[in-house]
Amino acid sequence: MKATRGRLKSSTKPRRLVTLDSELANALISRVLSGDKADSETAFGEICTYLEPGIRCLLKVAWVRGMDTEDIRQECLYALRFKAIPNYDPKRGESFLGFALFVIRRHIWTLVIHSTTQVRRTLNFGIQMTLLQEGHDPNSMRADLFIDTKAAQPTKEIEQREENRLLCKEILKQLTDLEYIVLEGTARGLSYKEVRDYILLKHPTLAVSVKGVDNALCRARAKAHAIVQKRKQLEAERE
Question: Core-most of 2, 33, 43, 143, by most CB within 10 Å?
Answer without folding.
Answer: 43
